[in-house]
């Protein structure tokens, strides 16, 4: 694994903290050259300084060109990690829905569009999508987040089935609760559903590296999510009843 990553050019978006910072640290420790991207320039610089990486602050949707310059023209691994945890229902404002779609889905599409020509020409490249278990299941109280994370998972799946025979590796990371600022922002819904089994960002990075070593598409830092996913597919009404029970519990505590 270390041999595969050593010297590789790696981009991690949303790497100023949380899962992104943990991924940047893990890749740097394995000998990769890491571009640290975040909207917050100070946080990007701090993580880059800590890891010996290169800070490229700014919008994750437009980072590829600058990252290619910083890495002498070659990006070997792209971690589409930046995301927004938009809560709300169908009544959330159109601006909320548009931002969730742009950051959680279209930023991934734009990065793939920019990187794939080079990867296909070389016959090698790795796209890592931080999705969330919400992309396989759902999350109460967060329609924009749940819907767009389903989109992010669908896009990662499509990339994998379309280009795996041409040397492109794709990984979809789908954790439940992770102790980050995003978890703190989920409020009472997160307290009910996510916080009891929350893990550290470093656990997510460990899970990704195990998945890369085993050449697995689906990365589940919470292994129990596999059972929930099977239940959702095999007995959807039973699964929906269980989720509705959580919804009612949440409504009673609000």
Please explain how this structure is put together.
- The chain is of the alpha/beta class and 254 residues long.
- The protein has one domain: 3-Layer(aba) Sandwich (Rossmann fold).
- Helix content is 54%, strand content 11%.
- Strands 3-2-1-4-5-6-7 form a seven-stranded parallel β-sheet, sandwiched between helices.
- α2 (18-29) packs parallel to α3 (41-51), α8 (187-193) packs across α11 and α10 packs across α11.
- This is SDR family NAD(P)-dependent oxidoreductase.
- Belongs to the short-chain dehydrogenases/reductases (SDR) family.
- Keywords: Oxidoreductase.
Question: Could you write a compact summary of the structure shown?
Answer:
The chain is built from eleven helices and seven strands.
Write the layout of secondary structure elements.
Blueprint: H1 2-5, E1 9-12, H2 18-29, E2 33-36, H3 41-51, E3 54-55, H4 64-70, E4 77-80, H5 94-122, E5 125-130, H6 143-163, E6 168-173, H7 181-184, H8 187-193, H9 201-213, E7 218-219, H10 225-234, H11 236-253
Parallel strand pairs: 1-2, 1-4, 2-3, 4-5, 5-6, 6-7
Helix pairs in contact: 2-3, 2-9, 5-6, 8-11, 10-11
């Amino acid at each position: 694994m270390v041999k595969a990553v050593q010297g590789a050019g790696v981009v991690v978006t949303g790497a100023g903290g949380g899962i992104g910072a943990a991924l940047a640290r893990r890749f740097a420790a394995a000998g990769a050259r890491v571009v640290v991207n975040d909207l917050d320039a100070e946080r990007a610089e701090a993580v880059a300084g800590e890891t010996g990486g290169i800070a490229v602050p700014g919008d994750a949707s437009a980072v590829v060109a600058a990252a290619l310059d910083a890495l002498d023209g070659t990006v070997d691994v792209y971690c589409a990690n930046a995301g927004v945890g938009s809560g709300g229902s169908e009544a959330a404002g159109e601006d909320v829905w548009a931002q969730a779609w742009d950051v959680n889905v279209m930023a991934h599409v734009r990065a793939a569009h920019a990187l794939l020509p080079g990867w296909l020409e070389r016959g090698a490249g790795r796209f890592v999508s931080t999705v969330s278990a919400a992309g396989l299941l759902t999350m109460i109280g967060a329609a924009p987040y749940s819907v767009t994370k389903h989109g992010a998972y669908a896009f990662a799946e499509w990339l994998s089935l379309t280009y795996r025979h041409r040397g492109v590796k794709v990984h979809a990371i789908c954790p439940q609760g992770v102790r980050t600022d995003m978890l703190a922002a989920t409020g009472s819904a997160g307290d009910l559903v996510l916080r009891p089994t929350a893990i550290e960002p470093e656990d997510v990075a460990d899970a990704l590296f195990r998945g890369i070593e085993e050449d697995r598409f689906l990365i589940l830092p919470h292994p129990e999510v596999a059972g929930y996913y099977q239940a959702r597919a095999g007995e959807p009404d039973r699964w929906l009843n269980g989720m509705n029970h959580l919804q009612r519990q949440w409504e009673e505590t609000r």
